[in-house]
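User: Study the fold:
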Amino acid sequence: MAPKPSKAEKKIAYDSKLCQLLDDYGQILIVAADNVGSNQLQNIRKGLRGDSIVLMGKNTMMKRSIRIHAEKTGNNVYLNLVPLLVGNVGLIFTKGDLKEVSEEVAKYKVGAPARVGLVAPIDVVVPPGNTGLDPSQTSFFQVLNIPTKINKGTVEIITPVELIKKGDKVGSSEAALLAKLGIRPFSYGLVVQTVYDNGSVFSPEVLDLTEDDLMVKFALGVSMVTSLALAIAYPTLAAAPHMFLNAYKNVLAVSLATEYTFPQAEKVKEYLKDPSKFAAAVAPVAADAAPAAAAKVEEKKEEPAEESDEDIGFSLFDD
């Protein structure tokens, strides 16, 4: 029987594995692993098997290995991972689509009971209805001020009750009641906290952005750059058309206020001297539209009316 590896040997093996994964994978999901059991974690490993690897470990050991590997390779982008290793977290190295891997991880959440002292991650509401408990159990409901009635020999909750609010600790009475009702209000699994992509670090919400969302954000950014460039008179590709248009307006205004002129300003000056020319320029457009409208009216008039029975040449009462 082979001897068990020592702690030092385990650390060396872990360090080697982590460094190899850093070299082989450029995409990493940093996940929180609070309240995740070993069987659940094993199922997640199986579900991600193929293009992803889940690595758990002590934060101090992971930080140390990352720093040493960054120094050896000279690739300091690995150091962006160090500040993210806080709390009970793990690393998912992947070569697949980050969004698809994130969605796959979310599938492995399992229900969990409300344990005493646990901070509630969500609001817990007890629904109305028959509980199946005998009347001797009403004391639990009375302690928690839950309105009940006896119906066919069992306790029935009359209205929905907000039993626990998000962020509150679960008390012994609440935990006991939920256990009696068979309610498992919480669900736990690996939760993606941060995404690392070849040195870039960003929130997992970015993975949910669509092309339309990106276009809207890009347009907003271009608008802000344009506004800033116009405000400080700094030429940019986005601001150039507006600058030329504003410059043309300024030159035109100077031309109208002075004797200076240029071809584009002549027509405007003519309109200002004689407004009837502007009306004459608009009139042909309206005149061209009038015959078309009249033609449509004539077509409607020329449509033959529906023939009556008398026009057909016989009557309903003819033999």
